[in-house]
Amino acid sequence: MLQICELSKNFIMHIRSEAEIYGFDAVDFSAKPGELVAITGPSGCGKSSLLKCIYRTYMPTGGHVHYTCKDGSVIDLATAEPWEMIHLRETELGYVSQFFSVIPRVSALDILTNTQTGRGVDVKTARERAAEYLEKVGISPKLWDMYPATFSGGEKQRLNIANALITKPRLLLLDEPTASLDAHSKEWVMNMILDLKAEGTAMVGVFHDEIAIQTLADWRYEMRERKMVPKDYKMEYASEALAELL
Ligand SMILES: Nc1ncnc2c1ncn2[C@@H]1O[C@H](COP(=O)(O)OP(=O)(O)OP(=O)(O)O)[C@@H](O)[C@H]1O
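^ thats the input. predicted complex w/ adenosine-5'-triphosphate below
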């Protein structure tokens, strides 16, 4: 469903005499329906930039992101037209960002409802499912009509995750989805991710959390110094192979 070939990103800083900052270089991996690929690695090695290039928040500098759409056609997300990306984001792609940017003066329930009605779901069904997802991520009913600007970091993050998962995307990108969550919240979120995987969603996630990796991932890739470590490890062999690396 997702085949990434030689994907690279450099940043040219026009306000700094065209200085070049390396994001990441020549990344290759693939994900089939229902598989989760975990990306790990030290801070600054390019993990978030990689997800942003797949979602096209960033324009890749080189390489390809071949994605097989619902209708069977294959599109290169690295070079797709902006309108094609907008359409795919509205219909097939999901993204959980590292930091949730709150929409001012819209309640938690309305955020999840609007996400669905914007995709053609009727208001009644959308509100019912919004309540179901808020419950699933453990957000207290007392908070449903509140503005998330006042939520704690963990509550914002759970709302962020519910908002991405409620659309049941075919490809979901997760940037540290379990960071800043306590043990209970982590379990709720991991169960929801497992449910979505079982429905066939392919996922690429940045993780630092070993438990989440062991629970969720089918494949694990390490990034070091802005490159992918050249081997990939199917999870059953991951601990052995990583022990050799470290
Ligand atoms: N918009 C940008 N403009 C310029 N440089 C950027 C931009 N985004 C990322 N970078 C640079 O690219 C490199 C990789 O950053 P990235 O955020 O992808 O790392 P990361 O592995 O996700 O780090 P962390 O684990 O700390 O979130 C860093 O040196 C960063 O400064």
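The longest strand covers residues 19-31.
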